[in-house]
Amino acid sequence: MVLAGCGTAADSEEPVADAAQDESLLAEHGLQGLDAREIVDHLDSLAAVDRPVDLMASVRAEELVLTDATADVALDMPEDVFYLAVAPYVAQTHECYFHSLTTCQGELVEQDVQVRVTDESTGQVLVDEVRTTFENGFVGLWVPRGAAGTVEVSYDGKSGVVEYTTGADSATCVTTLQLT
Fold first, then answer.
1. Between 160 and which of 127, 134, 137, 179 could a Cys-Cys bridge form, CB atoms 3.0 to 4.6 Å apart?
2. Each residue of 32-71: pLDDT tens digit?
3. What InterPro entries is this protein classified in (predicted)?
4. Which domain CATH number covers 145?
5. Can you tell me the mean pLDDT for 137-156?
6. Domain limits at 68?
7. Into how many domains does the chain fold?
8. What is d(CA 10, CA 144) in angstroms, rounded to the nearest whole number?
9. Does residue 28 come out as left (phi exceeding 0), alpha (psi in the -120 to 50 range) or beta?
């Protein structure tokens, strides 16, 4: 299995599991003892210079897939929450479906953005706060599974909105939120 850059919906081949290789891969990258949520939070927030160049980490709806030159590891994502990586942009974006924690790069690096996430079925506001984008230009959001709604972002007098879903086949990488 090869993961390059951002992932597409077609990149859903199942990795082959081997417990010894799994532990070795996790240990080699300082991730042993961490669950999928902890690894996602750790890798997405790393500075560019600290990102492992020999590790691909793809966030899928149901699993986190880690791949290096020697092994593939798939860890179950939490059952109750879904990771949604959002890269708001003004002028430049890229296509993506499955967020790559080690290679996806958004335009707005370390910028304060107002984020509002709403669940359309309940009307509940899940997030309404200022967040600082990571060095990769993304804001990482843990939202309930089985939800659908909108993500609104405001930045520097500009704003935009995009719809999201958190089902088994949903995208984990949102790169279509243009701020105008």
1. 179
2. 999 999 999 999 999 988 999 899 999 999 999 999 988 8
3. CueP-like
4. 2.60.40.3700
5. 97
6. 19-76
7. 2
8. 24
9. alpha
Residue pair 137/113 in contact by the 8 Å Cβ criterion? no
Q: What separation in angstroms does the CA of 112 have from each of 36, 60, 115?
A: 26, 26, 9
In a domain, 103, yes or no: yes
For tokens 């090869």, the residue is 2
Q: What is the 3-state secondary structure (H, E, C) of the chain?
A: CCCCCCECCCCCCCCCCCHHHHHHHHHHCCCCCCCHHHHHHHHHCCCHHHCCCCCEEEECCCEEEEECCCCEEEEECCCCEEEEEECCECCCCCCCCEEECCCCCCCCCCCEEEEEEEECCCCCEEEEEEEECCCCCCEEEEEECCCEEEEEEEECCEEEEEEEECCCCCCCEECCCECC
**Amino acid (one-letter) located at 3:** L
- 10 domain residue, yes or no: no
The C-alpha atoms of residue 98 and residue 12 are separated, in whole angstroms, by 9
* pTM, entire model: 0.87
Give residue-wise pLDDT tens across range 92-145. 999 999 999 999 999 999 999 999 999 999 999 999 999 999 999 999 999 999
Same domain, 86 and 68: no
CA distance 13 to 108: 31
Q: Largest Cα–Cα distance of the chain, in whole Å?
A: 51
Q: Domain check: are 59 and 94 in the same one?
A: no
